[in-house]
Structure formats: structure tokens, C-alpha cells
Amino acid sequence: MATVNDVKPKSAVLTEEILRRCHERAAGYDRDNRFFDEDFQELKDAGYLLMAVPEKFGGLGMNLAQAMRETRRLAYHAPATALALNMHIYWTGLCADVWRSGDSSVDWLLEEAGKGEVFAAGHAESGNDIPVLLSTTKAERVDGGYRFTGRKSFGSLTPVWTRLGMHGMDTRDPENPKVVHAFLQRDSEGYEIVDVWDSLGMRATQSQDTVLNGAFVPDSYIARVIPAGLGGADLFILGVFMWALTGFANVYYGIAKRAFDIVVESVKEKSSIALSRPMAHHPEVQHGVSEMRLILDSIEPQIETLANNWSNGVEGRNYASDVVSSKYTATEGAFRAVDIAVDLAGGFAINKRSELERLFRDARLGRIHPANSALTHELLAKFALGLDPDDPQRWG
Predict the structure, then answer these.
(1) Of 129, 118, 171, 170, nearest to 153 (Cα)?
(2) d(CA 300, CA 253)
(3) Cα(111)–Cα(82) distance, integer angstroms
(4) Which terminus of the chain has fewer CB atoms gathered within 10 Å of its CB, N or C?
(5) What is the pLDDT of the chain when averaged over all its residues?
């Protein structure tokens, strides 16, 4: 992983002008259920997609802690944009950490990212509650590479990706299955994108399904072939969880911060015929505001400490445990905070013209992202109890 001496501090990528424009467009993207084309082009031009790519490969060289602060800032203004772009950022960030460790096996990805290729995530599958480590997609070894057959869901960045990071299972040896991590090129044959995205929240991500019908990926785009489960996890795999889940945590923390700021300002002006002063003086309103503040105060130290520990190469941590805990705290807390904000804002907060209505829907999706509540509790307990999370008899 990166150490504090490997990455020089960088100034922010995002200007206040860019953030303002992204915020102004967010409601329209949500209403029209369309991709954030204008945001994407402006952020790409600004170098946002290159922030985690090392300078050697044409990027800005930000580490996890630095990149996540920018993710959080963007999410405060345009949550769906930040969430979708996190799928590209996490590939470049984890590969940068692999490169810093002295492993050149995925340098090609950093080189391509530096030249403008856009990477997306194809991990979600129906019937698989342990993404990345297991797969319902079939990976068949053939001359020169692998063929993949299966269906991937929640493919954020579908309209613009040029490389789809995905995985499948090679079960030629049933006793020793392997997970194959690959990157599908956009101009490949053997796959189709199915337009299914009409979701509760995060609508601008346009996370369509990708159906793989024997799609071929050459060996040059195979990043890893490793044993299934946590036992096969190396820095590449751990990096997927560190960068992806820490990104999720910061996106939803940004949403909660935005909701907090909206409601604090609104109750200062909100009135009641039965009160002589604004609702900010109502004790239950004050109680709700303090509850939101307590939630926010519990999230930020955890996500900052995790990102800083990883970026500074702090040893002796169980990062797999730390990252699922951090993601859970952030996403569960964010939804509670936004729910309180809707209560405090009152009935007009449910109107489609209200930003809080959109933030409420967006915040709900955080609890679905991996690791969800069930898997988080399972992993944390098994780590604490010294149980093998790869035991084929999962429970009992």
C-alpha cells in the first residue's frame, strides 16, 4: 500500500464553480433518469478521473485519503455523479497501490487510465451475496484468454465505460475453484447491455445490466487468477474493498452532511402559528439536529482514520474488518440522518421539488451496496471469533 512519503500532498481537483454546476444539474438528471453527461465531461476535463493515477502514468498521484476527500466534496453536491465515478476511481487507486508496492502486474491499467480509458465495475450478480470473492459467472479457459458467461448488474458508468472490470469462476477443478479478474474491452463481442435502470435513487448513475454470452478477454486483460474466497486475497483484491467501500462511505457521508446543512438553515426560518419564534427554538427540533450531528461526528473520524491508516502504511490492522465496519457506519448513519432531516423539514420535504426528497432516496441505496448489513455482521463476528470466513459450511 502507499506510504505517506510516496504521495505528495495535492491541491483539490474540484473548484467551487465545478461543484456549483454539478449541483445545479443533479435534480434534472434524477428527474429525467438520465446519465450525467455534462458532469462527466467537465470532471474528466478537470482531471477528476486521474486523481488516483500516479504522476508517472499521467495522473495527479492522490492517495486514498486525498481522493476520498474529493469524493466526499463531490457527493455533497451531486451524489449520483460521485457514486458512479467512484467505480473508476477505485480501479485506478487500487492499481496505484499495487504499483507502489513494487508489483508491476497492473501497470497497463494505469497506463490506459492515463490515456483516457474509463473503467467500470461488473461485480454485482443475482444469487451471489459475497461479491468479488465468489461468482455466479462462468470463466472458461480458452486459447489466449478466458470466455465469460453470466449476468452482471448495477453497472455504473454504463454509457461511458471503455473497460469493464469483472470477475468469473473457473471451476475446472471443483475442489479448487479459481476466481478470474478481467477487464472487458468495449469493442469486444459476446456481450450485450440491457437497459433496466429505473431505480429508487442514484438514478443518474445509469447502472445497467451487462449480459455476457461467452465474451472473450485476452490474457493481457486478465488481472488476477486466484483461489476463491478471502484466502486468495492479495493486495489487488484487498484494494478493491478498500477503495470501493471507502468510496461508498464517503459518498453517503457527503449526502448526510448536505441534508444536515439544508435542515439547519431551514428550521432557522420555519415558523408555526403556535410559536412566537422560529422552529429552531423548539426543543424537539433541537434534539433532532443534535442527533444528526452525533451521527455525523461518529462517521467522519472512522472513515478518515481508515483512509489515513491505509495511505500511511499503518501495519497491524485487519483492513478487511476495518473497511466493512467503516462502510456500515457511514451508510447506516447517513440514512438515519437524512430520515431525521425529512422529519425536521416537515411535509414539504416529500415533494419532488425538494432536494431532501432526492437525498432521502439516494441515501437509502447505501445500505444495499456491499458489504450489506448481513455480510458485515457475519465478517466482523467471524474475524473477532477467529472463525474461517471461507469455511464451506458457512453457518452451523
Answers:
(1) 129
(2) 8
(3) 23
(4) C
(5) 95
Give the chain's largest Cα–Cα span. Answer: 79
Domains of the chain: 16-118 (1.10.540.10), 120-231 (2.40.110.10), 233-385 (1.20.140.10)
Euclidean distance between CA atoms 1 and 103, whole angstroms: 11
Closest CA to 14 of 5, 23, 26, 1: 23
Rounded Cα–Cα distance for residues 166 and 184 (Å): 7
DSSP state at residue 9 = -
How far is 396 from 393, CA to CA, in rounded Å?
7
Report in angstroms the alpha-carbon separations of 297 from 12, 157, 171, 242, 275. 23, 31, 46, 21, 31
Handedness of CA 359, 332, 40, 21 (dihedral sign): positive
pTM (2 d.p.): 0.95
Q: Is 34 left (phi over 0), alpha (psi -120 to 50) or beta?
A: beta
CA distances from 166 to 41, 109, 116, 311, 320 (A): 24, 14, 19, 25, 20
Question: Alpha helices, DSSP H only, in the chain?
Answer: 16-32, 37-46, 64-77, 79-100, 107-114, 235-269, 283-311, 319-345, 355-364, 373-385
Give the list of residues 6+ apart from residue 35 with CB closer than 8 angstroms, or none.
Answer: 29, 158, 159, 160, 204, 205, 206
pLDDT, one tens digit per residue, over 263-287 is 999 998 888 888 888 888 999 999 9
